[in-house]
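Dear Dr. V.,

Thank you for agreeing to look over these. As mentioned in my earlier message, I'm a first-year student in the group and I'm still getting used to reading structure tokens, so any feedback on how I've presented them would be very welcome. I ran two proteins. I've put each sequence directly above its structure. The first is here:
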Amino acid sequence: MVFNLITLPITLLFISIGIGQLYFAIRLKRMFPKEHVFSNSFINFVLWIISGILYPFFYPRVTEDVIFHQAFSMNIICIFAPLLVFLILLYQSKIVLKDNPKLRESRTITKFLEKYDIMNKNQINNKSYSLRTDFHRKIFHLLPGLIIIILRIFAVDVWEGLWGADQIYGVSGYEYAMFLILTIGYTGVILFAALDFVRLAFIFEKSNVYSLLPDCLSNLLIKTLKRNENYELTKNTVLVLSLIPLLFLPFGIFTAATLITSIGDGVASIMGVSFGKHHFPKESSKTIIGYISGFLASLGVSFFALWLFEPHLMLSKMIIISLSGALVFLIIDLLSLKIDDNFLNPIFCGLIMALLYIIL
């Protein structure tokens, strides 16, 4: 484990961000008790702490080459990412909004919600968002896991396997994959956290921070948020933070859990919204065809992930592990808990499949 002064700033930064988001969550719960689900925000806080603490454990060796990559990663995560956020906000404040008071007045949470309601007026199955919004949400949720999978394949199969770069730089393909995944992933969640702090700054009535949110990000949020999520922390942050502990699992299991969370959940939601007629329970917006579609999609992507990344497994073992992941997804979907499934699906599907991977 590489635990030194290089990894310490990342751990402290993540703990600080987690505490900051918990403070926002407490304020939001008091102001919007019906819209804000505090349990999800508390889990988000815990995930920030866990991710910060786990960071050093992803590097099992202590060598000069590993420490160099650690230092480079620390500079990107702790210096470049916050500096980028600061420069964007400075640009918005000093250039975009400086001589444009009308634009500042149009950038309020009230105006944003009015625009949101107009763009999502096509409400289906009593949902507070349109099919187009649902599609954009699921595509957006697929990206983090897809990026991690691509980086892992590149580092192990191309960087080490094809190019032999591990002999030149003294870092194995696995270590280089961790360097890429953690640098990009941790930087990404910091940027999402900054977006949350700016987006939710409307809780401070005398603050003008919300007006610093660029229009391009505002339009993206309209396409990817549910109505009540305008009063909650960004779901993509929860998804990425939930995937981080799973990096210790066999990569086939990690990939299966990731694809269940994105593709399985996406298919269930889109099929249910588009074609679902029979609701279960009756008062729920979820439909039987959605449950079936999500289960089959989860089974398919799980088996594909194991076949691709764990080819040494027997066919029967692949089927059993895939079936377990799909069943856990179905159970979570049926329970319809208030806890965010972006946390429940990857964690529980991943743990159950990993357990069977070990004991079978």
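The second protein is here, in the same arrangement:
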Amino acid sequence: MKKQVLISKLLKELINQFSNGEMIPVPELTYSGTCLVESLKVTLSKERQSSTIIDANCGYVYSHNSINHTLFEIQPISTSDYIQSANWIKLTHPDSLEFILKATTAAFKFFHSLPTERHNEFDFVYQHRLLNKNNCYESFILRFYVLQSKIAANSIQFMLHAKLNPLLAPVDENLYKFISIKPYNLFIKSKLLDSKEYIAFTNTEQEIVKLVNKGLDYNEIAKIRSISPDTVRTHFRNINLKTGMHSIKQSCFYAGHFYMY
């Protein structure tokens, strides 16, 4: 019961990030309940992917082009639904729900704290598990970023892009608390989410991840970064400690899905 009360409280907090006290959809975005996707010039759903547009003014979902109908008994969020949709909550892995609500709420509080001129830098990625028709959990990587459009200029829309990635499902339960959020340094300073509650890489570690995934060894990375090979090895150790993996290539392969999306 205590957990249900906590989840309810966290969900209410998340919803408040979108309400602005109005809860009125932006009319320019709506046409017969469907988002004017073509006018946004966005490449939407491909195999194993889905895209959803969310109005930051009210939390309504205007478009959901998705593979969900092939995977789930019910769609987690359907067209013209509201972000508080109970469906995605029912299907979310119970061990992840509390963290997802905390992290997502913190991310949007962080977005609202950013100066307007830095809104375009906002980028938030995390891992989500949803129960499929076969009663197994599918692993998705979800990414929120600000969508620019010429319509409804006074409102902000977020693109929520989801990629099905069963190969990324980690053995270590702790890795489901792995996030990427930008601008990272400002997020750290905001202290909106306790650093002990999530796993994230520093900006330097993110650069190391990208270089390892390009096939470079520690000597080559040392030259590019103008640091000693021993310093690179230290970064390798820290990266492995955060992922719980013993191979730097495995760690960077995993992290690369978040930082290179």
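From my reading of the second output: The first strand starts at residue 30 and ends at 31. The radius of gyration is 19 Å. Does that match how you would interpret it?

Kind regards,
E.
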